[in-house]
TrEMBL record:
This is ATP-binding protein. Keywords: ATP-binding, Nucleotide-binding. The keyword Nucleotide-binding applies. It comes from the Bacteria. One of its GO terms (molecular function) is ATP binding. The keyword Nucleotide-binding applies.
Length: 83
């Protein structure tokens, strides 16, 4: 395989990836650190609403079964086939 061909050193170098280059500038940096005085708001109704939604979903009747996929093209109805 020592025939004429492109010299490997003559090939252009592939571009190098740079971390998070595809992100918008606002998202490239790490998120700002939260201060200790930042408290997450406690919403006692949030878990209750979540549990109520789960209960409603579990109590709902199951959806009807999906009919099996049959032939999608036109079907022949020959009178030659008799049972």
């Amino acid at each position: 395989a020592d025939g004429p061909g492109p010299d490997r050193d003559a090939r252009p170098r592939l571009p190098k990836r740079r971390a998070q280059e595809h992100l918008v500038p606002q998202l490239r940096d790490e998120p700002a650190r939260r201060r200790h005085d930042d408290h997450t708001l406690h919403d006692p109704g949030l878990m209750a609403a979540f549990q109520r939604g789960i209960g409603l979903a579990e109590a709902a009747p199951p959806p009807p079964p999906v009919p099996p996929a049959g032939p999608t093209g036109p079907q022949r109805h020959d009178e030659t086939h008799k049972e």
